[in-house]
Amino acid sequence: MELVKNIFFNTDKLIENETVKISYTGKFFKENFDEVYVHFGFGDNWDNLSEIKMNKTELGFQAEISLVSTENLNLCFRTNTNEWDNNSGSNYSFHIEPVSVAMVAVDIMLILSFLES
Fold first, then answer.
1. What letters, b where the CB count within 10 A reaches 16 and e where it falls short, cover 50-87?
2. Model pTM above 0.85
3. Per-10-residue mean pLDDT for the chain, 117 residues long?
4. Domain extents in the chain
């Protein structure tokens, strides 16, 4: 799923407590940088601030991110030479959906059926 030009996720929705793969094909990929980091946090205050070195592939820079909050995922990218792609100062922000009650019920049913077998 492409939510913003040059940023892709391996899922249709970003859901709390899931791990997603992010692919970045923006400025730093086009300019052939060797090292890019995704810098991310949640909500207005960028809670749980983290930074992960991304893997360079033929399809862009990629990394996995754990969605530990229902607040928006905010992110930007930087190179090892400290150049930033922060969406012209606006950063990139994506909505995260809470885990639905139906999903939790299915997970519990699967666990119970596994324990019974």
1. eeeebebeeebbbbebebbbbbbbbbbbbbeeeeebeb
2. no
3. 77 93 96 97 95 96 95 96 94 90 56 64
4. 2-116
